[in-house]
Amino acid sequence: MKKMMKYVVIDILRNKIIIGYTILLFVAAVSVFSLENNSSKGMLTLMNIVLIIVPLVSIIFSAIYYYNAAEFIELMVSQPVKRVHLMLSIFSGLALSLTIAFLLGCGIPVLLFSANATGYTLVLSGVALSIVFVVLALLASIFTRDKAKGIGLVILLWLYFSILYDGLVLFLLFQLSDYPMEKPMIGLSSLNPIDLSRIIILLRMDVSALMGYSGAVFNEFLGSGWGVLYSGVMLLGWILIPSWLAIRKFNRKDL
Amino acid sequence: MIVATNVSKHFGRFAALDNVSITCNRGQTISLVGPNGSGKTTFIKCLLGMVIPDKGFITFNDKNILHDYRYRAQIGYMPQAGKFPDNMRISEVLDMMIDIRRKDKAERDEELMTAFGLDKIMDKRMRTLSGGTRQKVSASLAFMFNPDVLILDEPTAGLDPLSSEILKNKIMKEKGKGKLILVTSHILSDLDDITSEVVYLQEGKLVFHKSIRDLRRDTGEEKLGRAIASIMQKNMAG
Question: pTM of the predicted model, to two decimals?
Fold first, then answer.
């Protein structure tokens, strides 16, 4: 499995997109910190950038990579290699490369300009988001045979999690404003990994004014410590459950 | 050595394989023949675990191949159209396969590679290769690890006459070592000298599985091509 992973990582690093992504993140992070003289303001701006760019790049890059690796996959499944190992090597190769790119592009500036608990939380949630969206991309592309359809689906998923979901939740809140919605809100936020990361970071930052409705609810009901723990566990679930589904499907797939 | 029992596979409503049972033994050279879309490639892919049958099971040396992968170390497979990662060099692909299949240099069989002259173009990237050269690479890979079983799907398609002669000689040589060889081809004259058994598939069903001697006797034709043609004609009429 290590060997296959090696080939996946070599193949990805050959791709210049991942280097471009690192540079983009680095430039964005450094400029954000240099523009704002207050580093926690800079953190907020950086958070908003990270929450949009990291899922987008992770999900689209991974989906395209999976479809382009069709030949590699076909070659490997006829060899004495376990399918689970093949899938896990592709997954860990992608997750590893995107995590390293994120750590270099965003982790270093954070370490330089704002090396505190909030900064580390931002970096950690960025890493978690990268992995979650790699898994989601693989799940979507294993289920769709057609490349164009698969990439379309993946873009839709990103659009849903980063934009549409908030709108839907707001709409629901507005419609049901006569009822106590605090507890269902916790559940609803758990259904969106981007929301979860945002809540983790904001709980750490302790800027209640910016927490929004779901963040405030988390703070009130779970307190910031439990809130972070709960969101962390939920994010882990967002990694484990889709990868389990993806592997199960891949094991039975005709190639 | 390989026993397929009641294997069925549907793609949607289309039955690619319908209750096919075939037994393959060591030392045989089995030709899988049949019209286009008769399920030959699907059957081969089932043997390799690339396609998972809906019904029935396949055993390799008395072990069910489902949930197993180690048995593939004993199979050399040459697909109908070899697909390789585009931006890898020939040498990188070979190194990768060697890395994964873990065979020492002494145990490797690189005869075909030198015969095809691939050692002179090792630095070429896969995407720059012609279809025929790609076939040569996948043929070399199939024979490289000295497997007990060779599965060749349309091995001579796309090869020039000289290379296809080299490949046929290599198949004969491996046959002499008592290996099990499964071949599909539409060029029946290619199969003439190497075949010991013929499996005929049509619309996913096994029509017959006979030794070449029986087939020649039953049809009264000496050439495999003629024998198969006469059977196809009979089937069309019936």
Answer: 0.89
